[in-house]
Amino acid sequence: MTSTPPVEPSPVSPAFDELTRTRTKEIISLYPESRSALLPLLHLVQSVEGYVSPDGIRYCAEALDLTTAEVSAVATFYTMYKRTPCGEHLVSVCTNTLCAALGGDDIYARLRTHLGSEDRPLGHEETVGEPGSTGSITLEHAECLAACDLAPVLQVNYEYFDNQTVGSAVELVDALRRGERPQPTRGAPLTDLRTVELELAGFTDDASTVDTTARVEGPSGAVESVRGARMAEENGWTAPALPDEPPAMPALPEKK
């Protein structure tokens, strides 16, 4: 009696095709412990589905020999992993303290009604348009986008648009809805969310992306960001030298 060779398990969803499975293996091969590949693998799933679905959770769990509870715990902890289908573009408005005080709250409030209506403003992580279709937008408020020197700021697919106003933010989302891709203030040229998710998973050679070199080109600094360093240089200010010996640390209390 001849034994039948084992059949490799099929993906839990037709969305996870052979290319996705091949990329999954490539990601896992980079880590000594397979479970360490979970974060990029979730980005890969999101590049395929436009969000992390229950099927995506199961796919990651099977690929990494984890439970769905373990995968869900990670997918729900990080805000970059979305649990509902996203638009072609993710618009993130910073509403943390400095951005909020300088107009971030007003920008977010205006975009909610502009993309929704006065009676039914668009909510956090809600989408206008058919998810994934050209011009569709998912709107979210973000706690901090780490650009206080350029506040108020927003991001489109994690690329920065600095020194925004209510008017410029409305013009930006209107351009996105028309299918345009305005140039970010800093960073790489704008693309769509799924392409960005594929890049976050570690793949930049997909045929749908622009030239790889162009994807990493673009201004990365701003006058505001280096103003302190320039003032120090102009005034001859320097930081005090490090001591030859580090200062003594206080003694730790004894364990009882």
UniProtKB/TrEMBL annotation:
Sample GO molecular function, one term: NADH dehydrogenase (quinone) (non-electrogenic) activity
Q: What is its EC number?
A: 1.6.5.9
Could you tell me the keywords of this UniProt record?
A: Iron, Iron-sulfur, Metal-binding, Oxidoreductase
Enumerate the Pfam families for this protein: 2Fe-2S_thioredx
Q: Does the keyword Metal-binding apply?
A: yes
Q: Does the keyword Metal-binding apply?
A: yes
Locate the region Disordered: 235-256
Q: What is this protein called?
A: NADH-quinone oxidoreductase subunit NuoE
Q: Which organism encodes this protein?
A: Pseudonocardia spirodelae
Point out the gene that encodes the protein.
Answer: nuoE
